[in-house]
Amino acid sequence: MVKSSNRDEAGGVKKGPWTPEEDSKLVEYVDKHGRGSWQRIPKLAGLNRCGKSCRLRWTNYLRPDIRRGKFTEEEEQLVIHLHSVLGNKWSSIATKLPGRTDNEIKNYWNTHLRKKLIRMGIDPVTHRPATNLNLLTGLSSLLSAGGLGGTPSHLDNALKLQADVAHLLKLQLVQSLIQVLTSSYGTPNMDLMNLFRSPLLGNYQPSDLLQLSRQIAGGLGGSLSLQSSIPMTPNLSILSHYLNNIGLQPTTPEHSFPSDAAAVTASDASRTEEPSADISNVSSTNSIPASSSTHPLVSASSETKNIDLVQSSDILCANTLASEPFEACWDNLMKLDTHDSHFGWKDIIDEMSWPDAAP
DNA sequence: AACGTTGTCAACCGCTGGTTA
DNA sequence: GTAACCAGCGGTTGACAACGT
């Protein structure tokens, strides 16, 4: 059902900027008769405009409840948050900002907020760290520089939160890398495995990698209430080693990992989403199947989860401040891309399956 | 002062989906 | 069931302003 939107043009309706006279005619008519049918309004109001143009002019400019002027920090924060949840659903976002039109929000996003996020190393479309390595470099330096001192404004908090999410997503990326090493196509990639066993990245053994992959997925997700929790294995030494390396040592009992060995059992195995990956030949010491799917640490797929995210911001921010070791590890990973011709991290990253974007 | 570049934002365009005849 | 009507949405454009050289 495609409609001709140029129907009115045959009648030679005026286009372009509205004059004050046209504005007053439209306002006067709507004040007197209400909105009614936009198609009939031009004729009834004595305007040589199409109904569409009248509706747009009214909703975006002449409406009495329009709020004009600079966006406040609270509004900016809200737009960023809502965009991370809703995507480019400008009209939906506008319903949460009284007095602001979808057009105005869209323009403000494209001219201000989008660029701001890019400067933060955050992909403004996905609200995740950009996989573009140049942008990641900027993000990395931003994170390691701290850049979080002073008394942050609301907007700073919003952006800081995005950066924290970026940090967590890097962790997810590392987790995904581990999964590539241990389970891609059922055959362990020994070259990559050897790389992870280098002192640079912590001398991980294949069995460690399997453990770590699960620990990161279940542990961080559970501790941050961002993902349905997966019971942890009791192998705290490995986890501790890993957490030390990435600077995410749990700091409070609330965020520590359970040591109850009973937590790791059949119920854990039953959560494995893709049990087809054959890992038995990778690990002789680990009898627990590793999840071959990527567990997103952060999901923007529902408003509820984002509320959780906001509530967890204190934890996230605290962890970010201790992220230097991880950043060093990350930088080393990225350097290897240029120094080792056998493979490219960029290629792996490109192949990585990220969780779905916001609906 | 003149010119080119970049940023901003109002308005337009093409399209979709709901409603009605 | 079908076609036309209509409101609304998101992407894009272009005029104008601001800024830099």
Automatic annotation (TrEMBL):
Keyword Nucleotide-binding: no
Domain of life: Eukaryota
Bias kind Basic and acidic residues: ranges: 1-12
Annotated ranges, domain Myb-like: 10-62, 63-113
HTH myb-type domain sequence ranges: 13-62, 63-117
PROSITE patterns documented for this protein: HTH_MYB, MYB_LIKE
Pfam families: Myb_DNA-binding (PF00249)
Signal peptide: none
InterPro entries associated with the record: Homeodomain-like_sf (IPR009057), Myb_dom (IPR017930), Myb_TF_plants (IPR015495), SANT/Myb (IPR001005)
UniProt xrefs under SUPFAM superfamilies: Homeodomain-like
Segments of this protein annotated with the region Disordered: 1-20, 251-297
Gene3D superfamilies for this protein: Homeodomain-like
Places the protein is found: Nucleus
A Gene Ontology cellular-component term: nucleus
Alphabetic keyword roster: DNA-binding, Nucleus, Repeat, Transcription, Transcription regulation
Ranges of biased composition (kind: Low complexity): 259-269, 280-294
GO MF, one annotated term: DNA binding
Protein's UniProt name: Uncharacterized protein
Native source organism of the sequence: Ensete ventricosum (Abyssinian banana)
Organism lineage string: Eukaryota, Viridiplantae, Streptophyta, Embryophyta, Tracheophyta
